[in-house]
Design brief:
elongated; 2 domains; Arc Repressor Mutant, subunit A; 0% strand; Rna Polymerase Sigma Factor, Chain: A
Length: 168
């Protein structure tokens, strides 16, 4: 395939690539940047494209890999390392929900709703929120892991419904 044919096929994919990029980023400007970066990488590495392969699949894979790499890079940048003595920044109290006036009432209300659950739901839920693993809860209560997971799930559902009913 000549360079001109390659470029024409690549430009023909722009609309589909933009649609796919938008589905990944949910932002039109970011999607356009992602497509532009994909074109750059495809043109830079054109010699790696095998003539008999599917150019659309090749470019979509490039786009997806660029998106994944950018996402991972962004997550790494958001990671904070505290090198201060005594981990000052990690232990620094930010604004917490406990400092709000109505937080005590809400917590009491939640605890009351949790206590109103049946034993079969309350005990696994409280164990899970205390830090027990599904396997540990299952062994302690002589239940399958699937049963433990479903009971915790349904406990959450019941609590959300009960707390929604109390909203003004």
């Amino acid at each position: 395939m000549t360079a001109t044919e390659f470029n024409q096929q690549l430009v023909g994919l722009e609309k589909n690539l933009t649609r796919f990029a938008y589905s990944l980023t949910a932002n039109y400007d970011d999607a356009c940047d992602l497509v532009q970066e994909t074109f750059l990488k495809a043109l830079t590495h054109r010699e790696q494209f095998a003539d008999q392969s599917n150019i659309q699949a090749w470019t979509f894979t490039i786009l997806k890999n660029i998106f994944i790499n950018n996402y991972r890079r962004k997550m790494k940048q958001n990671t904070t390392y505290d090198n201060t003595k005594d981990l000052y920044f990690l232990n620094k109290a930010g604004e917490s929900s406990a400092s709000k006036p109505d937080s005590g009432i809400l917590l009491k209300e939640i605890n009351k709703k949790v206590e109103s659950l049946e034993d079969g739901f309350r005990i696994p839920f409280k164990m899970y929120t205390s830090g027990y693993k599904y396997k540990e809860i299952g062994e302690a209560m002589n239940l399958n892991i699937g049963t433990v997971k479903s009971r915790i799930f349904f406990s959450r559902k019941k609590l959300m419904n009960a707390l929604d009913e109390n909203k003004p």
